[in-house]
Amino acid sequence: MDKRDAEIKEKLGSVKDTSAEVKQLEEQAKAIMKAARAEISAALNKMVKETTLEVEEKLAEGRKKVEAELAEALASLESQKEKTIVALDSQIAALSDDIVKKVLPI
Question: Is Coiled coil there in the keyword field (predicted)?
């Protein structure tokens, strides 16, 4: 009987020892998971920043290109406006000469 009690106590003792080891392993696993999550979060933040910078650079390039095209188009319109005004002035002069000739026959 004493032998059996000793065996049972020994088994119970080993179970208690194992539970402490399991707890320690669980804590290590939690620490590893926490570190992995932090590492993943940092990597994601870095990727987001890099992507944001890249997008902002491309937007700035596109904006400059559009602004240059707009400036060129405005300059072209202004040139066309001046040419049209010159053409209209010459047509107005010719029309007024025709009207004067028709109204005042010389």
Answer: yes
Centroid of chain to Cα 62: 14
pLDDT digits (tens, 9 = 90+) for 72-98: 999 999 999 999 999 998 899 889 888
Give the chain as a 3 state SS string.
CHHHHHHHHHHHHHHHHHHHHHHHHHHHHHHHHHHHHHHHHHHHHHHHHHHHHHHHHHHHHHHHHHHHHHHHHHHHHHHHHHHHHHHHHHHHHHHHHHHHHHHCCC
> How far is CA 94 from each of CA 87, 98, 100, 106, rounded to the nearest angstrom?
11, 6, 10, 17
User: What is the rounded distance in angstroms from the CA atom of residue 19 to the CA atom of residue 22?
Assistant: 5
